Amino acid sequence: PPTLRIEGKLGAGQDVGRSCILVSIAGKNVMLDCGMHMGFNDDRRFPDFSYITQNGRLTDFLDCVIISHFHLDHCGALPYFSEMVGYDGPIYMTHPTQAICPILLEDYRKIAVDKKGEANFFTSQMIKDCMKKVVAVHLHQTVQVDDELEIKAYYAGHVLGAAMFQIKVGSESVVYTGDYNMTPDRHLGAAWIDKCRPNLLITESTYATTIRDSKRCRERDFLKKVHETVERGGKVLIPVFALGRAQELCILLETFWERMNLKVPIYFSTGLTEKANHYYKLFITWTNQKIRKTFVQRNMFEFKHIKAFDRAFADNPGPMVVFATPGMLHAGQSLQIFRKWAGNEKNMVIMPGYCVQGTVGHKILSGQRKLEMEGRQVLEVKMQVEYMSFSAHADAKGIMQLVGQAEPERVLLVHGEAKKMEFLRQKIEQEFRVSCYMPANGETVTLPTSPSIPVGISLGLLKREMAQGLLPEAKKPRLLHGTLIMKDSSFRLVSSEQALKELGLAEHQLRFTCRVHLQDTRKEQETALRVYSHLKSTLKDHCVQHLPDGSVTVESILIQAAAHSEDPGTKVLLVSWTYQDEELGSFLTALLKKGLPQAPS
Amino acid sequence: MKLYCLSGHPTLPCNVLKFKSTTIMLDCGLDMTSTLNFLPLPLVQSPRLSNLPGWSLKDGNAFLDKELKECSGHVFVDSVPEFCLPETELIDLSTVDVILISNYHCMMALPYITEHTGFTGTVYATEPTVQIGRLLMEELVNFIERVPKAQSASLWKNKDIQRLLPSPLKDAVEVSTWRRCYTMQEVNSALSKIQLVGYSQKIELFGAVQVTPLSSGYALGSSNWIIQSHYEKVSYVSGSSLLTTHPQPMDQASLKNSDVLVLTGLTQIPTANPDGMVGEFCSNLALTVRNGGNVLVPCYPSGVIYDLLECLYQYIDSAGLSNIPFYFISPVANSSLEFSQIFAEWLCHNKQSKMYLPEPPFPHAELIQTNKLKHYPSIHGDFSNDFKQPCVVFTGHPSLRFGDVVHFMELWGKSSLNTVIFTEPDFSYLEALAPYQPLAMKCIYCPIDTRLNFIQVSKLLKEVQPLHVVCPEQYTQPPPAQSHRMDLMIDCQPPAMSYRRADVLALPFKRRYEKIEIMPELADSLVPMEIKPGISLATVSAVLHTKDNKHVLQPPPRPTQPTSGKKRKQRHGFSDIKVEDTAKGHIVLLQEAETLIQIEEDSTHIICDNDEMLRVRLRDLVLKFLQKF
C-alpha cells in the first residue's frame, strides 16, 4: 500500500540542534534541509548520511534536496554532504538563500578550520562546488523536479529568503515549513500558505507553548539595556554574524535612535556587514510590506545613524554602540573590541545568538569571568554580559494558524522540546481533528496514504451522467457504468460501447431469428421468390436482394424460407437480424405476418 | 470555447476567452494612439499653441472653431486627450471571472474595466508588472491632471459632423468609446484587485481550469499564459522577445502541445533591427551633443530606457560624452530606477548573478552615483536650477501630447542644432510631430521594438506546434505600406484564424475527456482484465459526485449481488427453463414458448416464434444483463 515515510535518523525530531529530514513519498526521496549541529565539534556535528542508503550512491537514491533557509542548523552540512559524502543531484533553495548561505558557510568554515584548526572539514572550493548544484526557485513557482515530482516554495518570514516547501507527487503531498514566523516582524512579513491540503504538514515547533509578543518583550528589553548603558556613559558591544540578526537589530536600534532622538554613535564593523546590507537592499521584495512600500523614499537598510567602524574608534571616550563580527567572540574585530572594553563594568556585551563551545562567547555566557588569552595573559571580564535570543519562530498560535491555512490531513511536529510538543499535539488534535505525530529523535514515521487515482472520463459519458443527475428522481445516488481502459500509464473511463469500438473488440452480438408461419404449398424457393417480389414492391427505399442460395436480404436482414416439419402446406420464414437492425427487423416480421399478396396463379 | 475580441490593436490586446465554465480576460490594453488627434498639453503657457487658428468647414462655417484647431494643415481637437477603450458592449464584462495581465503595457485599460463594468473578479499579474504598471499609470494620471484643461470637446464626435472633418479625424474609429483618463483613486482601486503570481505558478480557477504565467522575455515580469484543463491547452502569447535584453529569457518549451495558440504583440516595426537602431541612437546622440545641440528622447519611464542607459553607460566615455548631463524627467523616474534594481530575480541570467555579489543589476546605479545621470520628477523645482545645456533628456510621454516632453519640444524645436530621437514604437513619429510643425530641430526615427518578428514567429510555431493559431488580422497580411513583403506575415498550417475588433471566434476545439478521480476504495474493487498486450479493461460501476467542478467516483452504496442470467430470467416469470451447456456457451430453452436462446461469449441469439411481445421482453432482459457488464 502507498505510504509516506519520514526518516528522522538524520536530525530534527525532538531536537532544536539541527534539521535534516528524509521524506519518501510515492516512490520519491527528498531530503529536507541539511543542517549541522552547532553544539558539537566532532562527527555528531553532521548528520550520519550512511543511514540514507547502505550501499549505492546518494545521487541515485535522492531525487532532490531542499534547503528552507540560510541558518547553519538548516544548511551547514550541505558542502559536507554534496562534496565529501557525494551528491550530484539538484539542491533547491530560494534566491536570497542561495546568495547568503555560501557566505555563512565560509564564515563558519573559517572559524572551524582557521581558528580551531579542525581537520576533515569542507574547503572553500567545496562550498563553491556545492553551490553550483543549487537551482534557485521563486516563490509560488511550481518546479518540476522530474515528470512526477514537483515542489513549490511559500513565504516563511523567519529570515530573508526563508521558505516553506510543498512536495507533491500526483495527488500526494507533504508541506515542510522549515522555520517560520506567522507575525510580521521589523523587516520580514508573515508566513503564508494556501489551502493546499497536504497529506502531511511537517512543522517546526520551537516555540510550541510560547505566547505571542514575547519577541516584542525581548526587543524592548534589548533596547532598554542598550539605552541604560549608553546613558550612564558605557559602551555596548554586540557581536553578530554578518547577515540576518545584524540587520534586524540595526533596524531596531535605528528606529529607536530616531524616535528617542539619540546622538550616541552606532558603528558597524567594516567589511562584510556593509556588503550584507546590500543583499537586503537587493532582496527588498522579500521583506515586509512596510519596508517594500517605502523603499523608494527611504530604504530601511540604508542606516542614517549607523556608521562604519574604524578600529581607532574603540579607544574614543564616551558611550557608543558597536556591531562587530564575528558573532561568537572567537576572533577578529569583535574579540579585539571585547578585550579593550571587558575591564570596565560600565560597558556591556550583548550576545544575540548561540555560541559554540570553546569560543570566548560560550565561556562568558557560561559565567566565566577570568579568561586566559594567548600569551598566558588573563583577561578579567568586568563588563556586563547579556544573552538575548531573537530568533523569529512561530508561536503556538502561529502554528495553529498555519495548520488552519493549509488544512493538512495529518501534522508532524519536529524541531522542538518533547514536553512543549506534547501540549501542542493535543491542541492540534482537538481543534482540527487530525492526527498529530511527534517522533522522537531518530524515529522513522511511516504513514499510510490512500491516493485517489486520476483518470480521464469521456465527456460524452460524463455529460450523460450529469444530465441524468439533474433529473428530479435522481435524489438517490445514481450508478455510473463505464469501462476503464488502462494502457501504459494512461487511464481512461469510457462508455462500454466506446471501449469495444476503440479496441476493435467483437461486440456482444445480439441476434434475433423470428419464425413467421406462412400458408403456402409451393416449394420453399418459390415462397422465397414471392417474398422477394412482395418486399421489393413494398419497400421502395430499401435494398432488397434475392441471393443465389435462394435467401432474401433486406439491407442486412436475412430471410430464409424453410419447410414446416409437420405441415407441408405451411412454410416457415426465418427472419434474422442483429440488434442494430432492430427497428427494421421488427417491422419486417410484422409485415410478413400479414401474409403475402395472392400470387397470380 | 469562444474568443471575444475587444481590441483591434494587435500590440494592445484585450480578448475574452470562454473556456469550460470560466470567463477569462486576456490583457486589457489601452489604445492611446487616439491622443494623436488632440493638441498637446503644455506645462508652461505656450503662445504658439494657444494662438492656433480655429478650424472651419470649406463653406466657412466656423461652429467647430472652439473644438478644432489647425496647425500646418492638420486639424487637432483642443480638449483633454482621450483614449480608445476596448469594446465594453460585446460581452457583459461583469461576468468576467479573472483578468490575466501579460505585461505592464497591456494593463493600461484596467481601471476602466475593473471600476466601471461591474467586474467582481480577480486580476493576476507578476509583481514587476504591477509595480511598473502602477508607475506608468501614475505618470499618465500625473501628466494629465497637472495641466487641468477646462475644455472637453464632444461636438466633433457627432457622426454627422465627424464625416465632414478632414483625415485623420474623419477616419478615427470608435470615437464614441473614447474616454478621458482615469483618476489615481481608480488606479489604486483597480490595482488592489490584483493578485501577485510568479512564473510557472499553477493557479486553479474554480477547479475547472489552471492558468500559468511563463516568462515572455519582453519586459520586467512580462508573461505569456497557459490556460489549460487536463485535456485542453490554450497558450496566450503576448509581447514576447527572444533578444537578450534585461528580462528573463522567454520560456518557449512550456508552450508546446497547445490546441490553440493566441498570438498577439509582435514587433510593430518588423523591418527594423533593434541592435542596429540602438547603434544609430548612440551615434546620432553623440553627433548632436558634439555639435552643441541637445537631445530629446521621448520615452516611457520603464522598459527600453533601461537598455538605452546601459548602452550609454558603456558608450559615453569612449564617445567623449563624460561631461554631458543626462536627465531623466518623470514623476516616477526615481521609483522606476529604484524598482528596476530590486527585481533581479526577474532578470536575465547575467543580471541575476549580480545580486550574488551583491551589486545592483543595472549599471544606471553607477551613472546616478557618478552624477552622470540625474533624475527629476518634473521640469519644475530642482531641475530648473541644475539644467545645463547641451544635454540629453529622457522624458515622456512618447505621444508628445502631454508630459514634460511637450515643454522640450516647444523649447528646442526651433533650433536645428537639437535632435529629437524616437525610440518608442507605439506612435507614428510623423503624427506625433504634426502639432509642432514647422520644426527646425532634427528628427531621428530609431524605433526599438524587441518583440518577436515574423521570422522568429515562424520558428517558434514550428518549434511548439500548436494545432491552431489565432491572431489579429493585421498579422495575416503584409503591412499596408509594404504589401509586396509576403515575409511580413504569419505563415502557418493550418492558416491562422484571424480576428478584428468586436469579432467573436468559435475556437476549433473538440473536448473529449475530463479528469475524474477514482477513490482508492473503488480502485481496489476494480478487476482489470488484460485483453491485449499492455491494454487492460475493467468495468466500473460507481457513484458520481461532482463538487467545485471536480468529479469523483465513489464505490456504490452496497455491492450489488451478481445474479446469473438464469436466476434473473426465472424471476421474470419463465418457469419452464432448460439450460444446456455447449462447447461455446449455453443454450436456454423456453419450452412452452418454443424459444431458444443461444448464449455464447460474444453473441446471444434469440430464436423465437413471431411473438413480438415475448421477443421484446426477452430482448430487454438480455440487454439489461449485457449492460451490467
UniProtKB/TrEMBL annotation, chain A:
GO cellular component: cytosol; INTAC complex; integrator complex; nucleoplasm
SUPFAM superfamilies: Metallo-hydrolase/oxidoreductase (SSF56281)
Cofactor: Zn(2+)
Primary localisation category: cytoplasm
Gene designation per UniProt: INTS11
Name used for this protein in its record: Integrator complex subunit 11
Domain Metallo-beta-lactamase span(s) in chain numbering: 17-234
Subcellular location per the Swiss-Prot or TrEMBL entry: Cytoplasm; Nucleus
Any one GO molecular-function label of the UniProt entry: RNA endonuclease activity
Binding partners and assembly: Component of the Integrator complex, composed of core subunits INTS1, INTS2, INTS3, INTS4, INTS5, INTS6, INTS7, INTS8, INTS9/RC74, INTS10, INTS11/CPSF3L, INTS12, INTS13, INTS14 and INTS15. The core complex associates with protein phosphatase 2A subunits PPP2CA and PPP2R1A, to form the Integrator-PP2A (INTAC) complex. INTS11 is part of the RNA endonuclease subcomplex, composed of INTS4, INTS9, INTS11 and inositol hexakisphosphate (InsP6). Interacts with WDR73; interaction is required for the assembly of the RNA endonuclease subcomplex in the cytoplasm.
Domain Beta-Casp residue range list: 246-364
Swiss-Prot/TrEMBL keywords: Cytoplasm, Hydrolase, Metal-binding, Nucleus, Zinc
Protein family (similarity comment): Belongs to the metallo-beta-lactamase superfamily. RNA-metabolizing metallo-beta-lactamase-like family. INTS11 subfamily.
Domain of life according to the entry: Eukaryota
Record GO biological process: RNA polymerase II transcription initiation surveillance; snRNA 3'-end processing; transcription elongation by RNA polymerase II
A Pfam family assignment: IntS11_C
